[in-house]
Design a protein that fits this description.
Length: about 130
């Protein structure tokens, strides 16, 4: 789909290094692969927070225009799991669909959808007083 929409796009994908962030040797090997490829944009699909930490700790060694953590975005785009019904996306309930499809995500999603907004709200009240 992306290649049809953007004919000049060059894509490289490597799922072989599934232990990135666990040891220096693996990280060095992955960084070398990335730098040899010389991407303008690097998308890192790893667990949320871990992917951002990995990018932050290695960005100075990466020869990329920009790097971004994308979580499960590509899994959804590539059809690895069924997308949420359009109406759920439209009304902001995509998170609920993800919980129904992947119940193991319940804790993480609840923290992102309920706990985090609540903490932000509470903090905003403190700053107003």
């Amino acid at each position: 789909m992306l290649l049809k929409r953007f004919p000049g796009l060059r894509v490289s994908y490597d799922a072989g290094e599934n232990r990135v962030g666990t040891d220096r040797t693996t990280d060095d090997r992955v960084i070398k692969k990335i730098n040899d490829w010389k991407p303008d944009i690097l998308f890192v699909q790893y667990n949320p927070v871990k992917q951002e930490k990995w990018i932050a700790s290695h960005l100075s060694r990466l020869k990329v225009g920009m790097a971004m953590g994308v979580g499960g975005t590509f899994n959804e785009y590539l059809g690895d799991f069924k997308k949420a019904p359009q109406w759920m996306e439209h009304v902001g309930l995509k998170w609920l669909w993800r919980v129904m499809v992947e119940p193991k995500r319940f804790g993480r999603i609840m923290r992102a959808v309920i706990v985090f907004p609540w903490l932000v709200f509470c903090e905003s009240l403190k700053r107003k007083s």
